Amino acid sequence: MSNAAANEPCDACGDPTTDALARTVRLSVDRANIDTQRLCPDCFADWIRRYQDRMAGGDSDGGDSEIIVD
């Protein structure tokens, strides 16, 4: 059994990340996979902070945009 897949690099920083520590962020639109990122714990925490900052900002253009989380 190969250990190479268990130590793939983080897509953000490139550091090796074991399966036990990796977090996967998937972006899907209409059930179609648009993007998948494998992130180490630190990069995942940064991603969450950016997401929270953007979502807390509200709708800046005044339009009728809608975000659906599935």
Automatic annotation (TrEMBL):
Pfam families: DUF7569
InterPro entries for this protein: DUF7569
Protein name: Small CPxCG-related zinc finger protein
Organism: Halorubrum laminariae
